[in-house]
Automatic annotation (TrEMBL):
SUPFAM superfamilies assigned to the protein according to its UniProt record, in alphabetical order: PR-1-like
Domain SbsA Ig-like: 23-114
Record-annotated CAP-associated domain positions: 134-256
Protein source organism: Halobacillus locisalis
Entry annotated with the keyword Signal: yes
Residues spanning the signal sequence: 1-21
Xref: PANTHER family: SCP DOMAIN-CONTAINING PROTEIN, SCP-LIKE EXTRACELLULAR PROTEIN
Keywords, ordered alphabetically: Signal
Protein name per Swiss-Prot or TrEMBL: Ig-like domain-containing protein
Ranges where the SCP domain occurs: 278-392
Length: 395
């Protein structure tokens, strides 16, 4: 029997009981839920107003994705293993939500579901992960790493490329066993079938019944996320090329959980990943790689720190200074400059893919620059938890 992941539609009215609800008792662990409202809502406090508890009333980490018209919210697990087989969960939609006119919901609505005890379809991934290769296997194919950054005492990322060709980043544990990789180049086939630039239709046909499909605000598919108990696979799609496959990321579950702990080591790792991936993308598009500039790094880092400390997210700081002003304050003068910022992404990899799926950020990444600076700030007490700044300059 096919495993459908069509979203359950629950329709709510602000002042009355639900007028329609599709009952579902048992679902697959990759189930997504869509809450539909009959009017535009104020989602400024979305994370406090909609949440999921397990049977012991522990809050379960989920992603809440609101539609651009503020009438829909999609509820999905934070990771493919968030909802565990055989366990029961309840979604709560509370009166903390109001319409954009300020009319509050009358009561709390709930939906309880149980995850199927049968294991989901097994995820087949590249032999690099399945066989738990070690570092000697990787270096035999790609040579010695060009840069290393530590995610924790146990895990580290190493980057391999030849002038940003044959680009791959590999995640190892302390015993030099591969626990993940990322590449945006056509180095090897995925699952023995799909290669980079695979069409969206071919990906959807194979993965739609066992993956989350994440869309952007315009409804364009931008990534698939799927996993089994020990590994997660991300298929990143390029919305400007009809959602073709543009890169892949695989991480072991144990390593991936390090990202959600939001430790300060994410600053070093994400910093490295953003710089390296930027140049791999530029080379793929026939552009010059950018030179790292430590002075611009400092300007970028200070802006990320400032956003976290003062709880705002913008290119212009609270003193009214944009990128040119901040460069001038550092006694830096360039022919032209540009800036990308992001916040809340779990990894620098995902921040990069997000920028490439945004027209303005993509333009900055592919513009005629010479220099780059990157600054990442982790602050668990800030609204977004992690802030990314990427500054460009031309001499």
């Amino acid at each position: 029997m096919k495993r459908l992941i069509m979203a359950l539609i629950i329709l709510f009215i602000l002042s009355y009981s639900p007028i329609a609800a599709e009952e579902t008792d048992t679902v697959w662990s990759n189930k997504s839920w869509t809450v539909t409202f009959n009017t535009a809502m104020d989602f400024s406090n979305l994370n406090e107003a909609i949440y999921v508890w397990d049977k012991d009333r522990n809050k379960v980490p989920v992603q809440l994705q609101a539609s651009s018209d503020n009438k829909f919210v999609e509820v999905v697990g934070m990771t493919p293993w968030t909802f565990k087989p055989g366990q029961t969960y309840t979604i709560y939609i509370t009166p903390a939500l109001s319409s954009i006119e300020g009319t509050p919901m009358k009561e709390t609505f709930t939906k309880t579901f149980t995850v199927n005890e049968q294991a989901d379809q097994e995820l087949q991934v590249n032999d690099l992960i399945v066989t738990e290769s070690n570092k000697s296997d990787v270096t035999a194919d790609f040579g010695e790493p060009v840069e290393v950054a530590h995610l924790s005492d146990e895990y580290r990322w190493e980057v391999y490329h030849d002038q940003f060709e044959d680009f791959i980043m590999v995640l190892y544990n302390g015993a030099n066993i591969v626990h993940g990789y990322y590449t945006n180049q056509d180095i090897f086939e995925l699952s023995g079938k799909f290669r980079l630039n695979a069409s969206f239709d071919s990906l959807e046909k194979t993965y739609k019944e066992r993956a989350y499909m994440i869309k952007d605000d315009d409804g364009r598919p931008e990534k698939f996320i799927m996993g089994r108990e020990d590994v997660t696979l991300y298929l990143f799609l390029d919305v400007f090329r009809n959602s073709k496959l543009t890169s892949t990321l695989i991480m072991s579950r144990k390593a991936e959980e390090m990202y959600y702990n939001r430790t300060n080591t994410l600053e070093e790792v994400s910093d490295m990943q953003i710089y390296q991936i930027t140049n791999a993308i530029r080379v793929r598009y026939g552009l010059n790689p950018l030179k790292r500039d430590v002075k611009i790094d400092e300007v970028a880092y200070r802006h990320s720190v400032d956003m976290a400390d003062n709880e705002y997210f913008a290119h212009v700081n609270l003193q009214g200074q944009g990128i040119l002003d901040r460069l001038n304050d550092a006694n830096l003068s360039y022919r032209s400059s540009g800036e990308n910022i992001a916040a809340g992404y779990a990894t620098g990899i995902e921040a990069m893919e997000g920028w490439m799926n945004s027209a303005g950020h993509r333009k900055n990444l592919l513009a005629e620059h010479d220099l780059i600076g990157v600054g990442v700030r982790v602050d668990k007490d800030s609204p977004y938890g992690i802030y990314y700044t990427q500054d460009f300059a031309s001499e």
